[in-house]
Design goal:
Pfam families: NifZ. This is Nitrogen fixation protein NifZ. The chain has one domain: SH3 type barrels, CATH 2.30.30. Helices cover about 10% and strands about 35% of the residues. The protein has a 5-stranded antiparallel β-sheet with strand order 6-5-4-1-7. The radius of gyration is 17 Å and the shape is globular. The mean pLDDT is about 85.
């Protein structure tokens, strides 16, 4: 039986995102009381917001926490990998597909 999602240790593997990488939020993030100057329950990040990873930390010696700067909001919020998707990696995949030679077509 595999460990539950909250029991797996992410920091045994390399981080999924690197500083400077452009990312998009995959879900709404509300203040759980740890973000100063905002009310508990107030939206910090909305699904679809875009930002840049500024730094990588850890939590409970188990999870990576990505400090993401949300440019439109002017805030930096700690995010888990499951709450983000890379826009840079997606762009690289699209560019590679667009520049790869077409199979079956003679030059």
């Amino acid at each position: 039986m595999s460990p539950g999602r909250e029991q797996e240790v992410e920091i045994g593997s390399p981080p999924q995102f690197l500083p400077g990488e452009r990312v998009r939020a995959t879900r709404h993030i509300k203040n759980d009381g740890t973000y100063p100057g905002k009310d508990v329950g107030e939206n910090l990040v909305r699904k679809g917001d875009e930002g840049y990873v500024r730094d990588i930390g850890t939590f409970l010696q188990q999870f990576y926490i990505y400090a993401v700067e949300w440019i439109d909001r002017g805030t930096i919020v700690g995010m888990r990998a499951r709450e983000l998707t890379s826009l840079d990696k997606a762009a690289v995949g699209i560019a590679e597909t667009a520049t790869s030679p077409k199979e079956g077509i003679a030059p």
